[in-house]
Specification:
- The protein has about 270 residues and is of the alpha+beta class.
- It folds into two domains: about 70 residues, no CATH class; about 150 residues, no CATH class.
- About 30% of the residues lie in helices and about 20% in strands.
- It contains nine helices and seven strands, in the order βααααβαβαββββααα.
- The strands form two sheets. Strands 3-4-5-6-7 form a five-stranded antiparallel sheet, with helices on both faces.
- A hairpin with a 2-residue loop joins β5 and β6.
- α6 crosses α9.
- It is globular and about 55 Å long.
Amino acid sequence: MRSDPSTPFVTFVAFFTFFTFPLRALPQFQKFFEDKYQLQANCTLCHLAGRSGLNDYGRGFVDNGLSAAAIDALAKMDLDKDGYSSAQEIAAGSNPGDSSSTPKNAGGWLKNPYPVRPDLKLLNSSFPDAERFTILRAVLPKEDLARFQGIAGAVIEDFDRYLFVILAKGSKGVLGGSSYAGVLEKDSRGAKLNVFLVSANPNGKIVRVEPVRVWRSIFKKSSFLKMFRDLWPDEINRIKLPAPIEPELAGVIKAQFAKCATQIDLAIGP
């Protein structure tokens, strides 16, 4: 992988013994936010401290589409109803999702890093021969986006440049990687985020898909999860997902899984 002169290539590796915050969302969003606003945040930007539930900013992010455009839209809103817009709070270093944190009194929300804690049980299921797992955080160069789209067979947004890949390492090197896929669905009751762990070999061929936090029972069924095994990213879009998964949602699932597998390929491959 080559570095991007405008957005430095960032690799951060840490052993899981240091992780203290349960993974219930998509950590690549944090890096996107930090690059956009030049503010080093933590999981409490979107989550309630010590819990996996969403705060006002996190809920607004999900409700507005979980995208770069959503972050722009949130900047004008006062989601936590403390009298300040998200843009004003971020500029002052206060938490836009916590009404007790304001530009006048930001509090200590940034003092605790709240590093994530991926599920080792799920990772070991995907890579039983792994001796250790490490995290690779990276920003793909913009010139690689066309290649990304060609491999994934899905529309790639600038947001997709931000990688969070968990590397499985064995005695002979990297066995593969895992990445979190967010599948957003909306109904009359609002927006819901389904989170899956997609694991693939170093070339992007899917090894396993596991549910992390999902809202439909079908997403937990082995018959659904096994549909993606041994598929390359460009093969995923060709499969037909079972009812009651609506065609539009099926398209989102396949695109997100293909993107994850491609990110693993680009992160590990030559």
